[in-house]
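agent> step 3/5: call structure_predict on target 'Rap1a immunity protein domain-containing protein' (Devosia oryzisoli).
agent> reason: downstream docking stage needs a structural representation; sequence fetched in step 2, passing through unchanged.
tool.input:
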Amino acid sequence: MREAVAALALVLALATPAFAQSRMTFINGNELHEMCQVDRARCEGFIWGVADALEATAWPSPRSCRPKSVIADQVVDLAIQALAGKPAERHRPAFDLIADEVVGLWPC
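tool.output (status=ok):
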């Protein structure tokens, strides 16, 4: 019985720091820029997600109103160009950088 209690105490002691260290983090523009160079599919998914979120929700204001003729690859290409062309801004959250670009190109 003592051994079971000691084993349980050891497991709990080791598990506690893991919970203390876990927190949600968001990627910044530098991380997205690197992702776009090494994992195109993941990069595209992130950018498409931001663009879709801007049209599907009322936040952030102002929203984006992309014309139906704008295809997903076009949005990705423009977002990647913006990341490459603005290295001084890439410390900002990636969502904000992409949102600023999309809203700037296709405001409502």
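agent> step 4/5: record observation. Residues 41 and 93 are 20 Å apart (CA to CA).
agent> proceeding.
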